[in-house]
Design a protein that fits this description.
The chain is mainly alpha-helical. The longest helix is centred in the first third of the chain and has 29 residues. The protein folds into 2 domains: 60 residues, Orthogonal Bundle (Arc Repressor Mutant, subunit A); 107 residues, no CATH class. It contains 10 helices and no strands. Helix 4 runs parallel beside helix 7.
């Protein structure tokens, strides 16, 4: 491909991503359509499909996720688990795009990779000072098993006993396990 063709291709891809970000932010994942995104980008819907394959892959590529992890360093280590669970509950309940990413990541490798990056880049730093550096990735992974599993059961599958837990009940169930994953002996 010529340099001009590559630049045009890059511009088209960037235009699609910009339109997708705006559309997903405005309409949410479920209501956003490939046709609407293509119209916003002033291109044919077939071009969106050519570049991204499907809506899930486009969403995973376009979505910019921020877990907005607070600094937990001022808390006693034994309180970080509960604080982390409360924070995750806030994020899952306030951001439809995280739920959409979780749904997409179950069946789509691009979305799954985005979820892996999200937790590796944003959760792992929380463990600094709580765990030995060699243990941090495993501990972060174990925290992810609980938070993602809970989110899947509560927000995606709406499993009755989990979906109906009050916030204090959810924290009471999850915080001890998260705390053990963060600071407990292996």
């Amino acid at each position: 491909m010529s340099q001009t063709g590559e630049r045009r291709s890059d511009r088209t891809r960037a235009g699609i991503l910009t339109a997708a970000r705006e559309r997903f932010a405005t309409d949410g994942y479920e209501r956003a359509t490939i046709r609407a995104i293509a119209a916003d980008a002033a291109i044919d819907p077939a071009m969106v499909m050519r570049y991204f394959g499907n809506k899930e892959k486009l969403f995973a590529a376009a979505a910019e996720f921020d877990l907005r992890m607070p600094d937990f360093s001022a808390l006693p280590p034994e309180q970080v688990g509960a604080a982390l669970i409360n924070h995750f509950l806030d994020r899952w309940e306030d951001d439809e795009s995280l739920q959409a990413l979780l749904r997409a990541s179950v069946t789509n490798e691009v979305a799954a990779e985005r979820m892996r990056e999200l937790f590796a880049e944003q959760l792992a730093p929380v463990l600094k000072g709580l765990a030995a550096p060699a243990e941090a990735p495993t501990r972060a992974g174990m925290v992810a098993t609980q938070t993602l599993g809970f989110a899947l059961c509560r927000y995606v599958l709406a499993l009755p006993p989990v979906a109906s837990l009050t916030r204090p009940e959810a924290v009471a169930w999850l915080a001890p396990t998260i705390t053990r994953y963060l600071i407990g002996k292996i």
